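Project standup — Tuesday

K.O.: blocked on the structure for the chain from last sprint. Re-posting the sequence here as requested.
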Amino acid sequence: MRKHANRTYLFAPGNHERRVEKALGLGSDVVILDLEDAVAVSEKEKTRQLINNGLQQTRNCAAFVRINAYDTDFCFGDIYSIVSKNLDGIVLPKLESSADLKSVDWFLGNLERERDLTLGSIELMPIIETAKGAAAIRDIAKTSSRVRRLAFGGGDYTRDLGVEWTLTEEELLPIRSEFVLASRYGELEPPIDTVFIHIKEHGAYLKSCQNVLKLGFQGKMCIHPDQVAVTNKTFTPSNEEVVWSRRVISEFEKAEAEGVASIQVDGYFVDYPIVEKAQRIVDMANFLKELDSTN
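H.V.: unblocked you, prediction finished:
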């Protein structure tokens, strides 16, 4: 399994070979080759082989495939057709129960054994995007060790609930907060946020990224190449944040050695929780630096 960051997940329609080839070189942490919404029903089966061709291309990013939903006629065939050493992960859309997730996990495990792949090497990233899925999200978060993180699908979610999806996205605050809570409850990584459909609204998109970062998300799914750089920058700790975090850690270590567990750094109260947050920022910066040095 390829090591990768999780700031950007760029969609590319699996039946457009040139767009797939381009997407794999645009700097996204993960490219999602799509078999679901971007592919017409009449094209789905033939697109599986095109996706396998795309997965063989040289790339500096991870490659996931969004298959069709569990309750469709295509899900089984999608999984059976794409599992190989070239696949890093599967995006499972419209997941609504832990039972469905267990079924997919079992099937994947058997294919990994059959094809001499390391058991559990292919990630599963469920997209929760319906009322049923949202109601079951905490159970889903604790179901499979193959799931490292959850993703939120705002388009289908707002359609399912009859919610108006506005430019400011204030109506999404409750469900986004539940994603962060459920992910922590299930001991998963922070979640991945929904796509942003107003492609020309660059200021609103930046605001959306900043808002979900503050809520506790670690990245965002993207539907346009212009969104990749903005998203990567937003979810990457700034130099100022890293310098400050390292100072907090250093000052606290000195105080702790003297038996003190709460201090002030430039008027900012620092105790163990603050130091843990600072350490996460430093760890993230180090991880991204390591990735850059190997790509």
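K.O.: great, moving the ticket to review. The first strand starts at residue 8 and ends at 13. The chain is about 45% helix and 15% strand.
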